[in-house]
């Protein structure tokens, strides 16, 4: 009487373990990609992302910058098609006259994916050719390892190996060798795919940093009030002496906030450029007051560009 509930408990516990393992792996991937994104973004402004004190959750959340509408659509289609192909192990040979439009479309996609899987060597070759052209492909370098990794994964799929395994007898002594012969390529392909994703993520982070620098005037404006003169100089930065009677005698304007962490402000002057622009690190204290104002929202003029 108690065997059925015990079996259900074991099944539920196994399912929970699988979900926790997959969720942990997904969070680890999100943290890795988020760290790559933040490193590329703040390196553009000569800052170390890990010195900012960003937490694990903040790093993982930044990986969501990779999720765009085209990316989401492609991922959903890939998951749905892969799940459908996994449930249909043997292609049927029935006539197309009894199929509706949806079934005919699914069957066409199946045949196309199977053809791509059988041509995985061409995908790997394309990736290797791009690796040879590495110095000249610039921002699209991430495609080279991604193509190699995807090609290797396609080569390990049952669609590519179905013809090679038809009629082969299963030798027990070769089972372990076959397992290792598939595990090693899958592991190598996973590394190549992660390499490609990290390159793409870094490119997106740098692209976002360039957009931030081009539209710096839209960021929150910062006014520094100091009792003593600060050694600040840069394009777009202005300083005004309010007189000896003022507690905060010197007023600095023309700054924009990049980020603030634990009372430490990372500021950029309005005329900041990648080659020569300075990044100021200001610690809020008793002899210094930091005031924040909205950035320019319209009519940016020469200080901002659309994009």
pLDDT < 50 stretches: 90-95
Helix content: 40-55%
Can you give the mean pLDDT? 78
Estimated share of beta-strand residues:
5-15%
Helical stretch tally: 8
Largest sheet: 6 strands, antiparallel
Query: Compute the gyration radius: what is it?
Result: 28 Å
The secondary-structure element order is HHHHHHHHEEEEEE
Please give the alpha-carbon distance between the first and last residues.
Answer: 67 Å
Class derived from helix and strand content: alpha+beta
Number of strands: 6
Shape: elongated
Relevant terms:
six-stranded antiparallel β-sheet, elongated, single chain, 307 residues, alpha+beta
Can you lay out the helices and strands and say which pair or pack?
Blueprint (H helix, E strand, L loop, with lengths): L2 H41 L12 H7 L6 H19 L13 H18 L1 H13 L10 H13 L2 H8 L9 H40 L6 E6 L11 E4 L8 E12 L2 E6 L10 E4 L4 E6 L14
Antiparallel strand pairs: 1-3, 1-6, 2-3, 3-4, 4-5
Helix pairs in contact: 1-2, 1-8, 5-6, 6-8
In short, what is this structure?
With 307 residues, this protein is α+β, with helices and mostly antiparallel strands. It has 8 helices and 6 strands. The protein has helices at residues 3-43, 56-62, 69-87, 101-118, 120-132, 143-155, 158-165, 175-214; strands at residues 221-226, 238-241, 250-261, 264-269, 280-283, 288-293.
